Amino acid sequence: MFRHRGKGRRPVHNLKLAALLSFVAGIVNVTGFFAVQVLTTNVTGHFAYFADGLVRGGFSEASIFLVYILSFLTGAFVSNCLVEITAQVAARYMNAVPVFTEMALLFLVASGVFGHSTNANHLVACTLLFAMGLQNALVTRISNAVVRTTHLTGLFTDLGIELSRLLFYRRPEERKKLLASIKLRFAIITFFFLGCVLGGIGYLQFHTRVLYLAVGCLLGGIVYSDIRYRYLLLKKNLLSH
């Protein structure tokens, strides 16, 4: 899931990655909205608020949304930097480092270390946006831009196009590839929705501590990926002897 790259990556790897990370994104999205009234998995709406603030002369309010936008961008930038740097030192862990960084950030928010003041709320929003930029950049790179898990606008556009193609594609190999892509997009939508629902229910009971669930999911994904990789490597070595 996190290990396979390039030609060794199959649709099932992307499906597992999409299910896990879209579920995490759903939890983060609803937690950010409930806790600080900020959508923290994409920046589209923040551009509208930023422009509105500039037009109305509310530069101080507009600057807040600019910081939100830059937080997501910085997360994506740092994510790729971490991958590139780790690849030169220990390529085996190149994808794990951004995931552990995301886990640490979500853990900090879940533990409530930022407090509950207005400035603290802005810091929470920036931290969650940074974490989602980190995640989105990583999953985009791992899947060769096939999977995106933090926002659904482009996903619904692609899904609409692909559903229409079912009316026109007749060759078996074309339909097989198309159905696999549709299945992937439905998986992202479904698990993002489940993350939002379970995250919302969890927030009503545990507040930001529901993010511990997201941290646990990421940790489980890393452990599963490592165990699976070691198993396949052992199997390959046994078969070669």
From TrEMBL:
Pfam families named among the record's database cross-references: DUF1275
Top-level taxon: Bacteria
Family annotation (PANTHER family): SLR0142 PROTEIN, UPF0700 TRANSMEMBRANE PROTEIN YOAK
Keywords for this protein: Membrane, Transmembrane, Transmembrane helix
InterPro entries: DUF1275
Source organism of this protein record: Chitinophaga parva
Name this protein carries in UniProt: DUF1275 domain-containing protein
Transmembrane regions listed in the UniProt entry: 64-83, 95-114, 120-139, 184-204, 210-227
